[in-house]
Amino acid sequence: MVRKDFTFIIIYVKEIAISISNLKKSYGKVIALKGISFDVYKGEIFALLGPNGAGKTTTLRILSGLTKPTSGEIFILGENLKERELFVKTQIGLVPQHVNLDLELTVEENLIIHGLLFKLSYSEIKRRITELLELASLTDRRKTRVKELSGGLKRRLLIIRALLHSPKILLLDEPTAGLDPHIRRKLWSFIKQIQAQGTTILLTTHYMEEAEILANRVAFIFAGNIVAIDTPTNFIKSLGQVALDIFINGEMFTRYYPTREEAERALSEFNKNYTAVTLRKVSLEDVFMKYTSERLS
Ligand SMILES: Nc1ncnc2c1ncn2[C@@H]1O[C@H](COP(=O)(O)OP(=O)(O)OP(=O)(O)O)[C@@H](O)[C@H]1O
Ligand SMILES: [Mg+2]
User: Fold this and answer.
1) What is the pTM of this model?
2) pLDDT the model gives residue 296
3) Which ligand 1 atom lies nearest to the CA of residue 97?
4) Are residues 178 and 262 in the same domain?
5) Separation of 200 CA from ligand 1 center, angstroms?
6) From the CA of 55, which ligand is nearest?
7) SS3 260
8) Are residues 57 and 163 in the same domain?
9) Cα 158 to ligand 1 centroid, rounded to whole Å
10) Residues with CB under 6 A from ligand 1
11) To the nearest whole number, what is the mean pLDDT of the chain?
12) Ligand nearest to the CA of 52
């Protein structure tokens, strides 16, 4: 007899681009990382979110080989960072937190120097420069001195400089810090475009909105510890979909509800005992506030 009721089970195995386990880093008495572990999947944008001094830059510097960890294991595209440092460096592009371009040189000259450091041939460097200037809409700035570029264009140049040697992984340390909202949005589209070309991206940011819009997954990092990892959607769902900000006697309280109806019902129970009230969608910032206040209380 032939059975017809069989079921197919399809299992997607996500390939890991970066694997970090129990990573620790001390600078003398300062413990910057207290044993963090996480994986970044190939092709995703993964955001490390955390306050000043949480350990974000330290993590990126270790991944790009600029700082040695105190202990822990790191695998990049399946290769052990400790054993295959040179190979790993060719697979990673780092965009530092602070602009470190040569301001007196032109856009093209900055890119050529980076290409030469990575031992690319001159013809390869020229080809990549043309391609990347196009991608960043910077073609007409090729001969411009970097000091004449706006903050947003400098950031874009930093990103394409990191991509010059065609790394599979891009590390972005606060890519939009200090930029106005229009320029930030343009950079977000640019980062999404880079992801669409197949690059895995690990970024750090203070901006919750940036992580919510860009990241496939987010990790909250506080004082050298990762406290939670999930998708922005799951984080938000874990609080509820609707937030009520209630102002009573000059203080604001926020409460979360699964639906608008439940939020409205709860509001009626306050019996107009408030000065103002706002009903809004829950955001990643609410999740961040929750984790921060848990840590501070
Ligand atoms: N070279 C260094 N020497 C000594 N301490 C350091 C060094 N670099 C970082 N630290 C310390 O390690 C901790 C983590 O710093 P890190 O720069 O990684 O934080 P961050 O999350 O990137 O912060 P920010 O959001 O301000 O950029 C901080 O306490 C910092 O003072
Ligand atoms: Mg930093």
Assistant:
1) 0.91
2) 60
3) 27
4) no
5) 24
6) 1
7) helix
8) yes
9) 21
10) 27, 30, 32, 50, 52-58, 97
11) 92
12) 1
Structural domain including 247 reads 238-296
Mean pLDDT of 11-22: 90
Q: Report the pLDDT value the prediction gives residue 248, as an integer from 0 to 100.
A: 86
End-to-end CA distance of the chain: 66
**How much distance in Å is there from the Cα of 152 to the middle of ligand 1?**
25
The pick from 26, 27, 94, 222 for probing ligand 1's pocket by mutation, whose C-beta has the most ligand atoms within 8 angstroms, reads 27
pLDDT at res. 142: 98
Nearest atom in ligand 1 to the alpha carbon of residue 54 is 21
- Residue 225 Cα to ligand 2 middle (Å): 15
256: phi then psi, degrees, rounded to nearest 5: -115, 145
For 157-170, write each residue's pLDDT tens digit. 999 999 999 999 99
> pLDDT for 256-288, tens place per residue?
999 999 999 988 887 777 888 899 999 999 999
Q: Is the pLDDT of residue 3 over 70?
A: no
Environment of ion ligand 2 (residues, CB < 5 A): 56-57, 97
Asked if 34 and 163 sit in the same domain, the reply is: yes
pLDDT (0 to 100) of residue 148: 97
Q: How many residues does the chain have?
A: 297
Q: What is the CATH number of the domain that holds 80?
A: 3.40.50.300
Using CA atoms of 39, 33, 174, 133 in order, give the dihedral in degrees to the nearest 10: -60
> How many domains, in total, are found in the chain?
2
**Are 148 and 20 within one domain?**
yes
Distance between CA 215 and CA 189 in Å, rounded?
12
pLDDT at 290: 84
Burial 1-32 (b: 16+ CB within 10 A, else e): eeeeeeeeeeeeeeeebbbbeebebeeeeebb
pLDDT higher than threshold 80 for residue 182: yes
